[in-house]
Amino acid sequence: MDSTLAAELADLDAMGQAALAASGEVSAAGLLDAAILRLEAARGLNAVITDAFDRGRDQAVALDQAGTLRTGVAGPVAGVPFLLKDLGASLSGVREAMGSQALRNHIAPYTAWIVERYLAAGLVVFGKTNTPEWGNHCTTEPTLFGRTVNPWSPDITPGGSSGGSASAVAAGVVPAASGGDGTGSIRVPASCCGLVGLKPRRARTSFAPSGQLLEGLAVEHALTRTVRDSAALLDVVTGSAPGDPYNAPLPAQGFLRALDQPPAPQRILIATHSPFAAPPTDPRVAAAVESAGRALESAGHHVEPGAPSFDTDAVADAIAVLHNVSNVQLYNFARSHLGRDPREDEFEPSSWVMMREGFTTSGVDYADAIEAIHSQTRHFVAGMGAHDLLLVPTLLAPPPHYGVLDQPRGTTRAFFDVEFAHTGWTTMANVTGWAAISVPLATTEDGLPIGVQLMAPEETVLLQLAAQLEQAVPWAQRRPSRWLGAPAA
């Protein structure tokens, strides 16, 4: 593969690359070879921590030989190189460390339902991306693999927990990569890396054959550079597996198809402040949110200031308890894998705080946390009144530096107090089960990305509004300093 062509292909989103494969201009194997060239050039980003080149090549060759890419029925992302987050996206026979020293030699025994959907859609999987231990942090700098570099600047975090995926997409290694979101883990890295990050509504996708995560707070999707790619990938994974604890109603039409239609006028609440105790929102972020509001007003929507209220202490306490119990599950999983009790030094210090508290969490504590989540969801929804959406910051300030969002704070609640002081509203989409999308509408004076977030009960209207914003404030041609594609003309 010619390096010049590999760079030129990086400029295309997933649907653009798939269109080339469908036309026969470039084979799936050729698209993969180009992505591997870009990945090798991007090793310094430390975005990809496990290579699966041989299985990717086998899959690409099989797609080419089957001839399905050129029949016109292969789907809008068939043949496109794709990376999996090393958490929640198990691929049988491939290392699955989940960012944990205790699981450094763990091999996935099965392929997750969502990965099977990716493969069935013709996405060519060839590696796994870096993630913090068990997805606990909104930054990606695990002890096991080291920090992932943000292509926009080596001084700022790419976010987390889907930071490896975000870095790879932002740099142009691939046009899209998988992610997961429990308190903001798709949207935070999207904001830090200048990407589109959609957290689907609860139960839009399945964790099968595993059980639910964080009592339904977590959901999986992807990081992309364009809204249409996010919609196309959501079509790929929409649905539930037999026996899933939650089920989301199927949309009236496909998400990608819905982008062909403008949304009905929406009633939007806009807030620049944080619901949690936090420093004032950075003026540059507030200005980005207000600019988004004006753009939506110009598109025919009704925007007015306001935000729902809820008991922030009850939410933060519940989030802490659910994470404590989740980390005890990690401990037990590691013990089963190792055949012995894991050592404290085989976990991140902040994870160990959660485990230590989880060991003494009672069943009543856990039940009360679940009750609090549902109770505060009702307060939140009631506070929306007759409004359809909420427009807020993704992060309350531009991307933070490393060593901020992964540190132990003595207690799990104190840990989340620090996180929420940076993320503000993100966790409420997980608490309520609403869908939420972060779009890269602005930059700082020195070019760092600023994300703006929309939240609503379902995804179609979010994607439609995001597409309107994408037209009003085009972001696709912004390029980080570590861009692997062709230089701007």
Structure overview:
It holds the Pfam family Amidase. Its EC number is 3.5.1.4. It comes from Mycolicibacterium pallens. This protein is an alpha/beta fold and 489 residues long. The chain has one domain: Amidase signature (AS) enzymes, CATH 3.90.1300.10. Helix content is 39%, strand content 12%. Strands 4-6-5-10-11-9-7-8 form an eight-stranded mixed sheet, with helices on both faces. A three-stranded mixed sheet has the order 1-3-2. Helix 10 links the parallel strand 7 and strand 8. Helix 8 packs antiparallel against helix 16 and helix 11 crosses helix 14. The longest helix is centred in the middle third of the chain and has 27 residues.
How would you briefly describe this protein structure?
The protein is 39% helix and 12% strand. It has helices at residues 3-10, 14-23, 28-41, 53-66, 113-120, 163-171, 187-193, 227-237, 255-258, 283-298, 312-338, 349-358, 363-384, 412-423, 426-432, 459-472; strands at residues 48-51, 81-85, 124-129, 176-181, 196-199, 219-224, 267-270, 302-305, 389-393, 435-443, 449-456.
CATH superfamily: Amidase signature (AS) domain
**Rounded average pLDDT:** 96
CATH architecture: Alpha-Beta Complex
Number of helices: 16
Tell me the structural class: alpha/beta
Main pleated sheet: 8 strands, mixed
How many runs of DSSP E, i.e. beta strands?
11
Categorize the overall geometry.
globular
The proportion of residues in beta strands is 5-15%
- Please compute the radius of gyration using only Cα atoms: 21 Å
CATH class wording: Alpha Beta
Number of domains: 1
Family: Belongs to the amidase family.
EC number: 3.5.1.4
Organism: Mycolicibacterium pallens
Protein name: amidase
